[in-house]
Design goal:
- The chain has nine helices and seven strands.
- The chain is an alpha/beta fold.
- The protein folds into two domains: about 210 residues, Rossmann fold (3-Layer(aba) Sandwich); about 35 residues, no CATH class.
- α2 links the parallel β2 and β3.
- α1 crosses α9.
- It is globular, with a radius of gyration of 17 Å.
Length: about 250
């Protein structure tokens, strides 16, 4: 159990909700940071109703001022932020030749630069205190590529490389930095993609499931367990690592 303060972006829904609730159940004080404040309130309420400690925080990771304000709010309400989990993400499925520069910019602002903003704001305080954890949520798309996710794959590949370099730079400061890469995960976003694919949604989900050696999609709690390990005191000698949580779909 831990009572350290964790700031989770995109923490109200899907994988982020699983991360927030798992950390809350393990005793972390959780800032559920999300663009959707109402959903953040609901997720934080679920944590507190289970005797955990959590607060909802509104954040737009594409805006530096919003990130700075959100981290200050979290620190004011819970204490110094010791763990950041960069989970906020956005994607849409299309061939690269059909993408636009506007689409590129949105993907990079949310999935790559959003994490940079959070780290740039939070890590100096961790250095001052001599302890910290950075856990970035990447994707197996960033390790091996994924059809119809070219720009997203590039952004997540960037997250993996950035995390390794950050880990080297802060290794003597009591701070670790690691990446968790989910495989296909059963979330509302995945279901929305299946529904809008123009094919039978259940066949799309079934095809994804069949490709996984364990023959099931990940649940948010599966991803959350890996994040919680990297956030823990027990992971103090683990840094610069990239861990796929994919039921064996990606092995490295």
């Amino acid at each position: 159990m831990s009572n350290r303060v964790a700031f989770v972006t995109g923490g109200a829904q899907g994988i982020g909700e699983g991360i927030s609730k798992t950390l809350g159940a393990q005793g972390f004080r959780v800032a559920v940071a999300d663009l959707n404040l109402q959903r953040a309130k609901e997720t934080a309420g679920a944590i507190t109703s289970g005797d955990g400690k959590a607060v909802p925080v509104e954040v737009d990771v594409t805006d530096t001022g919003s990130v700075e304000s959100a981290l200050k709010t979290a620190a004011d309400e819970l204490g110094p932020v010791e763990i950041v989990v960069n989970n906020a993400g956005f994607d849409d499925f299309m061939k690269f030749v059909d993408t636009t520069e506007e689409f590129w910019d949105r993907i990079l602002e949310v999935n790559f630069k959003g994490a940079l903003r959070v780290v740039k704001t939070a890590v100096p305080g961790m250095i001052d205190r001599g302890w910290g954890r950075v856990v970035n949520v990447g994707s197996d798309a960033g390790r091996v590529g994924s059809s119809l996710e070219s720009v997203y794959s590039g952004a997540k590949g960037g997250i993996i490389s950035f995390t390794k370099t950050l880990a080297r730079e802060v290794a003597t400061k009591g701070i670790t930095a690691n990446t968790v890469c989910p495989g296909p995960t059963d979330t509302p976003a995945l279901r929305k993609f299946a529904d809008s694919s123009g094919q039978d949604a259940e066949k799309v989900i079934g095809g994804m499931t069949k490709a996984v050696p364990m023959r099931r999609l990940a649940e948010p709690d599966d991803i959350a367990a890996a994040v919680a390990f990297f956030a823990s005191d027990a992971a103090g000698y683990v840094t610069g690592q990239t861990l796929s949580v994919s039921g064996g779909l990606t092995m490295a």
